[in-house]
């Protein structure tokens, strides 16, 4: 995908694209069909059917255009698969499922791929930030509060703060579960229970339905869960985890755009070709990676808020519009988060640090006000240094990172 109005969108590759989502929908239909065969509810001729082979390259665009008629893309997909499948197979495709089962489960599959990509990027960032914190733990600079000079700190301490936020983002994402959604028309698995009854499973047709859902979940590598048609926690939890990432990167980018100002000049973005160039001022170099990260951090929370609003308005057994509002919102949020992850990784790896400039700014700033006040209170003279517990703060962050990296090995 490309997007002229969202520079960097290509970094997300094919994640959550129409083609990727169509592939996951077909995977759900195939897994369910195989589960029906395994339970003896569909003929053996339908076993191991590769439904993906029934589709052509141009089908995605056709299905997208036709989705308006049914309000979702699954209706058209099922009709197309049944039309092209062999007669012995056709009638059993999608039997016992509903559109929401297929779409929700396919979104979980696609979103899990997004999370895997993000966790890889976050892990790299944790390693990079750990190195920066160790390298610059004793590099003095002025701390700034409410835009003004405050007290002395070190660049390592600032990086330790970045590091903590990135670790937190990883932890939230890693805690995600990816449940399949199998409930049938009203979330009661009524159709497959009826099938099991008619097939002679008189002792436990409902148990057969539950086993079908479990088998499908296992085949897809997803968690098994009772139907969650209008309990949208898996969607909102994912949105919150994605925003946790963009929050962390936005905080880093906000520090960098401030410290890269010419009058401060303590940091610089990595130089790469024409990046940061101006259309009118040839010598200008803008901190575009940080700017684009801030863009994402500013816009991501509203997308997650839409997911929460949709969850709150998800009434009945399938909502009229709230569910529909989630799909592209989640896709947009996911892709933008992946883009931001790659941009932040590149920014941190190539970040240029200027310790000399940090020292100059510290020397010319009056940062001893609190130190003098404490000395006056103690009726003494200020101590030669005033860095408080900087080392302990850095060590705490590095220890968290070390535990994280050890867990990953």
UniProtKB/TrEMBL annotation:
Domain Fumarate lyase N-terminal: start-end pairs: 77-297
Pfam families: Lyase_1
Name of the protein: 3-carboxy-cis,cis-muconate cycloisomerase
GO terms of molecular function: isomerase activity; lyase activity
Family, similarity comment: Belongs to the class-II fumarase/aspartase family.
Lineage: superkingdom: Bacteria
Gene3D superfamilies for this protein: Fumarase/aspartase (Central domain)
PANTHER family per UniProt: ADENYLOSUCCINATE LYASE, ADENYLOSUCCINATE LYASE C-TERMINAL DOMAIN-CONTAINING PROTEIN
Keywords noted in UniProt: Isomerase, Lyase
């Amino acid at each position: 995908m490309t997007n002229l109005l969202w520079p960097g969108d290509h970094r997300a590759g094919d994640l959550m694209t129409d083609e990727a989502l169509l592939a996951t929908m077909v995977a759900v239909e195939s897994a369910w069909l195989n589960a029906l065969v395994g339970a003896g509810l569909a003929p053996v001729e339908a076993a191991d059917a590769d439904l993906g082979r029934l589709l052509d390259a141009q089908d995605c665009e056709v299905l997208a255009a036709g989705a308006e008629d049914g309000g979702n893309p699954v209706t058209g997909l099922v009709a197309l698969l049944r039309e092209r499948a062999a007669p012995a197979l056709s009638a059993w495709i999608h039997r016992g499922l509903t559109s929401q089962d297929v779409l929700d489960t396919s979104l979980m599959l696609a979103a899990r791929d997004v999370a895997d990509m993000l966790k890889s990027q976050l892990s790299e960032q944790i390693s990079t930030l750990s190195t920066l914190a160790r390298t610059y733990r004793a590099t003095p600079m002025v701390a700034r509060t409410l835009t003004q000079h405050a007290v002395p700190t070190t660049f390592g301490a600032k990086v330790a703060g970045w590091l903590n936020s990135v670790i937190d983002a990883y932890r939230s994402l890693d805690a995600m579960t990816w449940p399949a959604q199998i409930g049938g028309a009203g979330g009661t698995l009524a159709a497959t229970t009826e099938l099991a009854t008619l097939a002679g499973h008189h002792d436990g047709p409902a148990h057969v339905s539950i086993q079908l859902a479990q088998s499908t979940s296992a085949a897809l590598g997803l968690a098994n869960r009772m139907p969650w048609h209008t309990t949208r926690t898996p969607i909102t939890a994912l949105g919150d985890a994605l925003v946790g990432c963009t929050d962390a990167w936005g905080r880093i980018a906000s520090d960098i755009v401030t410290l890269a100002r010419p009058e401060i000049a303590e940091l610089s973005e990595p130089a790469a070709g024409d990046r940061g160039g101006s259309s009118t001022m040839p010598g200008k170099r803008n901190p575009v990676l940080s700017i684009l990260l801030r863009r994402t951090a500013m816009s991501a929370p509203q997308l997650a808020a839409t997911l929460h609003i949709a969850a709150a308005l998800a009434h009945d057994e399938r909502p009229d519009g709230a569910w529909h509002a989630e799909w592209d919102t989640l896709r947009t949020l996911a892709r933008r988060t992946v883009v931001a992850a790659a941009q932040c990784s590149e920014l941190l790896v190539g970040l240029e640090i200027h310790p000399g400039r940090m020292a100059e700014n510290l020397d010319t700033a009056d940062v001893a006000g609190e130190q003098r006040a404490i000395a006056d209170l103690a009726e003494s003279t200020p101590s030669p240094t005033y860095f408080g517990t900087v080392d302990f703060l850095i060590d705490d962050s590095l220890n968290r990172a070390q535990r994280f990296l050890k867990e990953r090995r």
